[in-house]
C-alpha cells in the first residue's frame, strides 16, 4: 500500500475524525422502460398520474416518453437511499395500469425506429429545449441506442474531509481547488480500475436480436431472438457497432478541472461537418439545438462525471467552473435484472469502498498510453470478462484479470474496514467478501447468472426479461405504501403538474431567442 494512502487512512482512523465518513452522500438514478403485458415498448404517453416529467424531482423521463427515470434524494445512509428508490417504484406501480417496468438494462423488442416516442415536456421554452435536444440525439445516434437503461450512482465525500486532508498534506490550493483536484484524482483512478466494476456488476451479456437493426456486429446467435457473447459482462457498455464519430476525437482530459471543462466547452462550440449539413431546422421546425460536436455538455458519453448541483437556468459546466466539483456520478452500472430496484445494499456498500479507494489512493496524471490502456481494459472486460485466463494490461505488462482483481480487492479492504469502523458495523467487509467470491467463481457474477437462468428456463433474452419484470411487479404491488407515503407522492405529482402549467403560462420570450441565449451562455464563459 502506498505511503500517501497509509497516511490518509491513519488520519481518518483517528478517533476525532472517524465519524466523518458517516456523512458521505449517496443518490441513485434508475432508468427503466415501460413495457406492455406482452413485453413490447409502451407507446402510451408518460402517465399523468405520475406527475409532470419536466418539474417532478423524483419521477421524470430520460430519452423516450417510455423511458422512466427515478431519482432519489442524496442521503447519508445508503439503506435510506435504496428505501427511497423502492418507494418510488411502489408508487409508480399504483399508476402503471397493466404496464410493467422492464427489468434489465438492454431494451425490450423495439418498434420501428421512428415509432420510438421521444420524451415530451410541454410548451415552455425549457420543455421545448429538452425535446429538441432529444430530436438531435435521434438524428446523431438513432433512437434505438437511446433506449438502453442504467443505474447512476452519485457519491460525495463529506465537505469537512477535504480541508483536513489539505492541511495534513500542506497543499497550497484553496479548499475548493483542493477538493476539485481530489475529485478529478478519484476520476482518474476510476478510469484505471472501473473494469473491475464491469466484471463484478455487469449484467447485460445478451440482448434482443432486433436491437442491432440488421447492422454488422461481432455478437453470436444464442437463439432465434437473442444475440450474446459467451464471456461478456456488459454489452451495454461495449461499442455494439455504434460509434459516435463526432465524439471519437473528444477525450476530455481528467488531469485537472480546467482542462476537462475546457474540452467540453470547445466541443459545445465547435461545428461538426455532418451535423452542419443537416442544419438545425427542417421544414421550418427545429431538429437539433446546434450543429456542433455536442449540442450540450450532457451529450458527452462517459462512465463517470464530475458534478455540481446547478442553480435554476445554470448549465452544468458553468456550475463546475464557478464553484468546483461537489460529487461524482458513476454512469457505467448495469441494472441487475434479478433485483427489483436493479441495485442492492451490498453493491452500494462496495461502491462506497471502491470510490473511497479511488479518492484516497495516489492518482498520478494519465499519460496518453495509460489512458488508451484503461479504455482497452474496460472494453476487454465488458466483452469477455469471464473468459478463463483473460489478460489485461497494467503498466504496459500483461496481467491476468483474476490476479489483478484479487490484488485490487486486497487494497480496497482497509477502506472497507475504515467505513465499518466509522459506522460500527461489518457491512462493508461482507460486501467485499461477496465480490471476492465472484472473482474466485465467475458463475456468481450477474452476467453469468443471466445466461444460466435463460438456459435453465430455455428462454430468449426477451422472455427472461419479461419473466423478471413480472416477478418484480408482483413484489412492488404486493406491499402497498403507507397511506401517508402514497398521499405524499400524490401531492408531489399534483404540485409538479401545477408548476409546469405555471411555467407555461407566465413565460416571456420566444423559443428561438431562448435557444440563442442558452447557446451564448456557454460561449460567454472564458477561462
TrEMBL record:
The answer to whether the entry has keyword Ion transport is no
Q: What GO molecular function annotations does the UniProt record carry, in alphabetical order?
A: ATP binding; glutamate-cysteine ligase activity; metal ion binding
- What Pfam families does this protein map onto? Glu_cys_ligase
Q: Which reaction does it catalyse?
A: L-cysteine + L-glutamate + ATP = gamma-L-glutamyl-L-cysteine + ADP + phosphate + H(+)
This protein's source sits in the domain of life called Bacteria
Q: Which InterPro entries match?
A: Gln_synth/guanido_kin_cat_dom, Glu_cys_ligase, Glut_cys_ligase
The pathway entry for this protein reads as: Sulfur metabolism; glutathione biosynthesis; glutathione from L-cysteine and L-glutamate: step 1/2
Signal peptide region:
none
Q: Cite the Glutamate--cysteine ligase domain residue spans from the record.
A: 10-380
Q: Which SUPFAM superfamilies match?
A: Glutamine synthetase/guanido kinase (SSF55931)
Q: Looking at the UniProt record for this protein, which Gene Ontology cellular component terms does it annotate, in alphabetical order?
A: cytosol
Keywords in UniProt for this one?
A: ATP-binding, Glutathione biosynthesis, Ligase, Nucleotide-binding
Give the GO terms filed under biological process for this record: glutathione biosynthetic process
Enzyme Commission (EC) number:
6.3.2.2
What family does the database annotate? Belongs to the glutamate--cysteine ligase type 1 family. Type 1 subfamily.
Name of this chain's protein: Glutamate--cysteine ligase
The organism encoding this protein is Pseudomonas eucalypticola
